[in-house]
Amino acid sequence: MGIYYTSYAIIGVKVDLKKFTEVVKGTSCNHSEQEGHPFCPVCGKRVTNHSETRWTDEWDAFSNRMDETPKHYYYISNNEDHDYGYFGYGSSSDRDEGETKAEIPDISEIKGVIESILTEWGLWDEKTEKTFAFYSITDGR
Ligand SMILES: [Zn+2]
Q: How far is the centre of ligand 1, averaged over its atoms, from the C-alpha of 31 (Å)?
């Protein structure tokens, strides 16, 4: 165990992930009998009303797809962060692997690859296109 950091330098976009989240009403236990009661008639726990943001099943599919990006393309997101991730071409560096070297590519080609993959998921629009830039990101776990 320990803190593990990877740094990335990418030319890419910020990906809005809100479409992969849902706000669900949380329950204090899993007994459906609790509905409408201050205390669950089955287990006796106080019934609380809270809501939480969860990833949808489509998120899992998207996440798996992004594990198989083309060489030198990185998808970076913190699973705790339900708002956005990053996707782009570049290089990374971490303690064990050292740095990676990516040849300087044709910028319009990068944009094309990103657009094509994100379009599959309905994630490419004018707003996303406007975030196309050079990013430096440190991802820690
Ligand atoms: Zn219960």
A: 4
